[in-house]
Hints:
Blueprint: H1 19-28, H2 31-49, H3 51-58, E1 65-69, E2 75-80, H4 83-95, H5 99-103, H6 110-121, H7 129-143, H8 148-158, E3 169-172, E4 188-191, E5 197-206, E6 213-220, E7 231-236, E8 247-252, E9 264-275, H9 282-318, E10 320-321, E11 324-325, H10 330-361, H11 367-397, H12 411-420, H13 427-439, H14 443-456, H15 461-484, H16 489-494, H17 496-521, H18 526-536, H19 547-554
Parallel strand pairs: 3-6, 4-6
Antiparallel strand pairs: 1-2, 4-5, 5-9, 6-7, 7-9, 8-9, 10-11
Helix pairs in contact: 2-3, 2-6, 6-9, 6-10, 7-8, 7-9, 9-10, 9-11, 10-11, 10-17, 10-18, 11-12, 11-13, 11-14, 11-17, 13-17, 14-15, 14-17, 15-17, 15-18, 17-18
The structure holds decanoyl-CoA.
Amino acid sequence: MTPFNQPPPTLANQYDDDRVLRSYLQRALPPEVLAAIEPELKEMGNMAGGPLYAFQLADRLNEPRHAPWDAWGNRIDQIEVSPLWRAAEQLAARSGLIAIPYERLHGAWSRVHQMALVYLFTPSTDVYSCPLAMTDGAARTLSISGNTGLRSRALPHLTSRDPHGFWTSGQWMTESTGGSDVGLSETTARQDDRGTWRLYGRKWFTSAATSQMALTLARPEGNPAGGKGLALFYLETRDAQGRLDNILVHRLKDKLGTRKVPTAELTLSGTLAQPVMGLGDGVKNISPMLNVTRTWNSVSSVAYMRRAIALARDFARKRFAFGAMLADKPLHVDTLASMQAEFEAGFHLAFFLVELIGRDEAGEASEEERDLLRLLTPIVKLTTAKQSVAVCSEALECFGGAGYVEDTGLPALLRDAQVFSIWEGTTNVLSLDALRVASGGGALAALQQQISGCVSAVQEPALREAAGLAVRTAAAAADWLRAAGARGQSHIEAGARRLGLALGRSLALALVCRHAQWAIEQGDRQPLAAALRFAGEGLPRVGGDDPDLAASLAMDGPRS
Length: 560
Ligand code: MFK
């Protein structure tokens, strides 16, 4: 007797199959831009759901390898990445995943063009988006640095469409003293008599240590402590002979996820470097890079949600249990609906951020939009990262035991998603960043205005109540912030995460309502269902917290 074998989930063309992406692009883009970029999106969608996905599954057990020595005792620190990663690099360069926003063929829409491709590419390439994000961040930082020498040296490589000329960049910030608190960095920069700078120190979490260059922070000797005393440096990892330039790779990290990413601990012992923009304010000067990588993080978070749901949905049509397909089981369908609503709201949030960056880079953003961009970069990152972990976890459950078995390829989704809320600023660090921005200037007012603007477009009676919830929640958050000042810094700080999530989810709701209104006018009521479901699950409450009670609860333990 032939035993029963469950057909595995499969993927269709990931562009054709993605109603949310296609509907968003139809609304947001001028028709001629959509017509121009759609063939690329279709092609990437075909790769991502077909050959690249098959390659990803076949490559599952391949991880980067570090060879410290050659056979004859020479220190080589060679790092081999997996075959999938080598192919991903070629595809990324040829597809212009970094080049597109710098070529800017479609003006302010070029970032949407780029990120729509990135969104399709990312879930089939095992976090190759990490080196790409840093490369984009370096390209952006150098292009606005005013350093014409470094710009003309590196930018043509970082934005090349030729895989042979393409460079990736590292973003070497983290040290064992300063993960989040980068100002504690101990790496020093020393200048010799001829004016040449060399770096000395240990970098503790250098992602994608195979890059040709890196932007990093070091403290010029004699500079004061803290982030202001650090300076932003450019370095090339290899010398003219192709040897690592006084860089010793100690080991690759053994991480929960992102296992294809060769994250290294390394020591710089006299590596040649050049200051990018002055000899101080390093944290501030590297922030354009952080803001770009945080945006990639947001797009990757929604891309992972979409992939997890695509697989779970396909499986629901193939899995028979308790007398019916899962797709016909009301409770399973209800669970998928909640996942889809989270994803759909997160998608609109992430791509709204992408639109703002595009406008800013094209010089079309108003002052309010620039304020909004500064506030939303941390908020969208922290909101979508939390969504992604929750949705990917729920998706694994949709497969029962198969979701917990490695060779289905499914557990990697959750392991990789978990990084989104950690790297590039944890939820709490980003909440505090957002709190600072929201507390001064006009950013919070700009955000409330944006929410009201979205909501004012909503006519459909069923949507109006949902849209009103977005306005009320954002207003309550702003009221809390104004009142919290009188209750002291620890009170404000304790509420920062709730504030960030309340604002992020309010805007997500407003954006999905605005989109739903447009879609209804096109005869599509699916986004309406997403908006109502997202609103129905509620938005976070800000306030009502007492820091003293929280401290006794959090640090619970025997009293002396
Ligand atoms: C899938 C794609 C994902 C990509 C993967 C990439 C791989 C990972 C590579 C990594 O390197 S991960 C490690 C990333 N590390 C972080 O994200 C650090 C997290 N910590 C923070 O963000 C802290 O808030 C921060 C280090 C910025 C705090 O440092 P400080 O020394 O207390 O600085 P401060 O006072 O907050 O800011 C200094 C100046 O920079 C201020 O300006 P002023 O001097 O004019 O007052 C800030 O306003 C400004 N600033 C800080 N963050 C900014 C910013 N400006 C614009 N945008 C920002 N995000």
